[in-house]
Amino acid sequence: MSTLAVYPGSFDPLTNGHVDIISRGTRVFDRIIVAILVNAEKAPLFSMDERIEIAREVFKAHQNVEVDTFDGLLVDYVERRHAQVIVRGLRAVSDFEVEFQMALMNQRLNPTIETVFMMPAEQYTYISSRLIKEVFSLGGRVQGLVPELVEERLRGKGLAQKK
Ligand code: PNS
Asked: Helices in the chain by DSSP H: which ranges?
C-alpha cells in the first residue's frame, strides 16, 4: 500500500523550514500533498494564486509532491484525498502545545488519520512565516531562510530590504 501524506498550512509565505519538512516527508511517504488553507478571515500577504505558484515552482522537479488548496475541516480534506497521514513540523517546545491540541482534535474527528510530527534541520528551527514578513518589511535579511523565489516576490511587493 502506498502512503499519501497531507502537509497542511497557510504558507504565507513558504519558508525553507517548510521546504525542509516537505523534503523529509518525501523520503518517508510515497506522496505528499502540500495543502494550502483557504482562510477568508486572514488578510494574507501572498494571494492564494501566488502561494500555489511558489510551492509548485519550488517543487517542480519532485514528482511525488502535489500542491493543492483546501477549506473546511482538515480531516475531511484528508479523507476526500484518500490520504492516511497529516504531517506537521515541530520546531520547538513552544509549538508542541498547540500542535498537540490540533492532533488530538483531529484524532477525535477521524481516528483513522494519523498525525506525524517531523523536526526541521536545526538551522530552520526559529523560522516562521510571520517572522520572515516582519524582518523583511523592517529591512532585515532573509536570504537563506526562504526560497529565492519568495525573496524575489517579497521585493516585488515593495517591502524594504537592506543589501
Ligand atoms: O500554517 P498554519 O497556519 O500553522 O496551519 C494551520 C492549519 C491550516 C493546519 C490549521 O489551521 C487547520 O487545519 N485548519 C483547517 C480547519 C480545521 O480542520 N480546524 C481544526 C483543526 S484541529
From this structure: 16-28, 48-58, 74-80, 93-109, 129-137, 148-156
In the numeric block, the cell 509532491 is attached to 65
pLDDT of residue 49: 96
CB count, 10 Å around CB of 85?
Answer: 18
Among 42, 82, 108, 163, the one annotated catalytic: 42
C-alpha cell at 141: 535579511
Q: Is the dihedral of CA 67, 97, 150, 125 positive or negative?
A: negative
Q: How confident is the model at residue 41 (pLDDT cuts 50, 70, 90)?
A: low
**Catalytic hit among 51, 91, 133, 153:** 91
Question: Is residue 42 annotated as a catalytic residue, yes or no?
Answer: yes
**Unique residue bearing C-alpha cell 517572522:** 131
Distance CA 33, CA 78 (A): 10
Is the pLDDT at 20 greater than 70? The verdict is yes
Ligand 1 centroid – CA 43 distance (Å): 16
Taking only the tens place, the pLDDT of each residue in 93-104 is 889 999 999 999
Interval 37-47 mean pLDDT: 86
